[in-house]
Amino acid sequence: MHVLGIDIGGFGIKGALVDVKRGTLVTEPLCLPTPTSAKPEEMALVVRDLCEHFQWHGITGAGFPAVVKKGVVTTAANIHSSWIGVNAENLFHETTGLSMHVLNDADAAGIAEMKFGAGKEFQNNVVILLTLGTGIGSAIFVNGILLPNTEFGHLQIRGRDAEKRASGAAKTREGLSWKAWSKRLLEFLIEMEKLFSPDLFIISGGVSKQTEEFFPYLKTATQLAPAQFFNQAGIVGAAMHAGQKASTS
Length: 249
Ligand code: BGC
Description:
This protein is an alpha/beta fold. It folds into two domains: about 120 residues, Nucleotidyltransferase, domain 5, CATH 3.30.420.40; about 110 residues, 2-Layer Sandwich (Nucleotidyltransferase, domain 5). It has eight helices and 15 strands. The structure holds beta-D-glucopyranose (BGC). Beta-D-glucopyranose binds next to helix 3.
């Protein structure tokens, strides 16, 4: 079954058609810039452009960079605050005409990595996936079951949100070396270890293509793995989630 998967992020809105049974992209992905306002209507128009590019009329899933409960956005760390309370599924439906299943972006990435990627051999374990992009997204799986909408990136480290210090964007913004940035990331991972005693950390997001630059600095007790889908995990997982919702409704 093919499903359109969309990953909505702070910098880009990207998508591709996904074969959800195999966990593979069946088209080249397209990435359009996220409008700088990051307001609902403007972002919805970009989502529409993406759907039109693929001339898509079928099932669609979207990962979204916030807590999403039953389609409703309830937080707004890296998007405009007017998103809070908006039913993203309804808004995207009105703009695109498609029925859309929306979930947190890191949860989407986690779903793909647990089924087809770095987490597939860890079905009887505690796995934490972290996306290190504009913010830090998180997904935790216990014996393969997702606890949705965790927000570990907002854990306070040295009095600041972990994501303000250790996201991929923080590295770029502050011009940090891999070593300096890894030190911050390690502090965060150690905090996660204290709280959850995970068996595996999966590192996703743009930096997951360069893990050889920083994994050597991360002396965690927990095993570390790069996301196998790199930064396409969100697209694949959003499509898988929508495919599953459509088949159970
Ligand atoms: C948001 C999360 C999101 C993460 C990655 C954070 O700022 O609070 O919901 O998963 O960024 O986009």
